Amino acid sequence: MKLRVTHRTRYDYASPVTDSHNEVHLHPTPLCGQTLHSFVLKILPATQLKHYSDFYLNIVHFFDIPQPHSTLIVESNSVVTTCQNRLPEDLKTAPLSHLQACTRMEECHDFLGTSSYITLSAEVWKLAREACQGIDDVWQSALAIMRFVYESFTYAPATTTVYTPMSQVLVGRYGVCQDFAHVMIGMCRTLKIPARYVSGYLYNGPTETLTGAQASHAWVEVYVPGWGWRGLDPTNNCQADEHHVKVAVGRDYADVVPIRGHYFGTPEMKMTVHVEVERLEDEEL
User: Can you tell me the distance from the alpha carbon of 229 to that of 102, in angstroms, rounded to the nearest whole number?
Assistant: First the structure.
């Protein structure tokens, strides 16, 4: 499916600020079967952009604005072709006992322990065991955890923030896609299933009812022995497919914040975000 994504963030400051330093995770990954046709990042006030690949192979842009400014606009425009990369949901893969080998794998090591937003407590382990009662297969366990989060937690916008830890979400049992992803990751990791956070976007066509579209979206990838990393979306109780535009992966949200920075000046600031995902015909660019 060919999709165009526009992501526009505007910061309006109560008085001019200076020395703004920022890094941006907005570049869709050209990996995992996803094709990136074009990517344009616009910054106002205009400035020089640089980029690098981080430890998880995400493309990160960064820029500085030393001069005084009252408004900052960061806008990315991408055209991608997504893919449908699903596994059969009745597939049997490997028993959970085989996951011990993952602790010695470089690509899995960082996605097995605690991190900024992920808590591996006895409570989380009990939830994971409850969700996977009688299941010993890695893929089937991951699917069971996804369904458990979808059925047990309420999607409730504006009830949490990007700084809400997983432990708080467990108490209220509500949140948004970021929170659902953090809970699922924590549950998977307590069973030694490597799990990582995925940031991106979600296309919701006119006849579809997916939750979390027309905004930044988040889901989970689990490592399945013999099959590699596989995307699961606990917000929608589905596998990540051609509706999902993948941008970056990390241990949790802290590793893939869309725009992170600091500046010198007033703390009084208003931020507005607009995201639009539209489908294109194959011949359109």
Answer: 12
What gap in Å lies between CA 177 and CA 183, rounded to an integer? 10
Lookup: tokens for 80: 């991608």
CA distance 23 to 176: 24
The predicted-structure confidence for 132-170, as pLDDT tens digits, reads as follows: 999 999 999 999 999 999 999 999 988 998 889 898 999
Tokens of 5: 């994504």
User: If you write DSSP's letter for every residue of 165-206 in order, what string do you get?
Assistant: -HHHHHHHTEE-HHHHHHHHHHHHHHTT--EEEEEEEE---T
Q: What is the pLDDT of residues 207-251, one digit of tens each?
A: 566 776 667 899 999 999 999 999 999 999 999 999 999 999 999
Q: What are 52's strand-pairing partners?
A: 60
CB atoms within 10 A of CB 218: 25
The arrangement of secondary structure in 96-255, i.e. its CATH architecture, is Roll (3.10)
Q: Kindly report the pTM of this predicted structure.
A: 0.94
Q: What's residue 103's pLDDT?
A: 86
Residue ranges per domain, the chain?
2-82+257-279, 96-255
CA 167 to chain centre: 19
pLDDT, average across residues 15-28:
97
2-82+257-279: CATH, from 3.40.50.300, 1.10.10.10, 3.40.50.1820, 2.60.40.2250: 2.60.40.2250
Quote the strand ranges of the chain, DSSP E: 2-24, 35-44, 50-53, 59-65, 69-81, 154-155, 174-175, 195-202, 216-224, 228-233, 238-239, 244-250, 259-264, 269-279
